[in-house]
Amino acid sequence: MYKIERIHDPYGYPVYSLYNSETGSAVEINDQRGGILTRILLQGKDLLHLDGEIYKDKEKYIRGGVPILFPCVGKLKDDTYTLDEKEYHLPIHGLARNFPWKLVGKNEEKGEMVLELNSTEETLKIYPFEFNLNFTYILQENSLKILQEYKNLSKKPMPFSSGFHPYFRIPEQVDVRIRASKVLNTISNEIEKCPKKIPDVEKEAGYLVLDNQEKEVRADFGAYKLTVAFDDVFRYLLIWYVETEKFICLEPWTGKPDALNSKETLLWIQPGENLKTWIEIKLDM
Fold first, then answer.
1. Residue-wise DSSP of 144-206
2. Which pTM does this prediction carry?
3. What parts of the chain have a pLDDT lower than 70?
4. Element (H, E) at 104
5. Taking a C-beta distance cutoff of 8 angstroms, is the pair 29, 138 a contact?
6. What pLDDT does residue 133 have?
7. Are 254 and 162 in contact (CB under 8 A)?
8. Class of CATH domain 2-284
9. What are the backbone dihedrals phi and psi of residue 101, each rounded to the nearest 5 degrees, phi first?
10. I need a surface site. Which of 77, 83, 97, 219 has the fewest CB within 10 A?
11. How far apart are CA 147 and CA 30, in angstroms?
């Protein structure tokens, strides 16, 4: 039996909780802090890393959970991009994680919540397009699926990149398996042959997978295994590992960093049209 409630999390924030007491599965979403997923519990397994001290500070970017990336992924050069000969400024990973979202639908029978983000006068100052983002969260016993709809409400084509930044906690160990031949090492900024093992270093590693040959990435955490599956539109995968903080990020991205400047790998939606896509996080015991 599913239940959707407004509760306060351990840090005092009001969040939306969707849970099933029979299966031990639950998610929590902080709508006021960028619609971020702060908890994913599947069959009693707490999957996400969340730095509580940083999370409590409303002036800092959250280090943990599942931030939403839009309309850019990664960092723009000097946090700046140009459109129609006008300069705009966006922080790393864009604006969606910095504005409040709104719960617009729920279905306790099916275990679904729907949240949305609409453009405002403030967003138009940094991204000159009217838009609507509509995300449906579907909780199952061993999976969470996120259906996404990106709508262009402007009178001109809308360019963007999107993605997710899930921080997975490492309870024992981690071994990530992908099928690819080349990666961009985000620490050295050099293109390298895809490592046979990720992570392949002790302290920190960052790889942008350039030619992922499967529409999923699998990770073995010892006590359980996870699969992050995604639609074809997510052409790239960012893997970031920090040993001292015991997390690994497995991030589906639709484009490359700085795409709003390079105009490469961008998605474009025509006026009045939309794009629908999805990702899914699945637990294997």
1. EEEEEEEEE-SSS-EEE--EE--EEE-SS--EEE---SEEEETTTTEEEEPPSSBS-SSSEEE
2. 0.97
3. none
4. strand 102-107
5. no
6. 98
7. yes
8. mainly beta
9. -100, 170
10. 77
11. 18
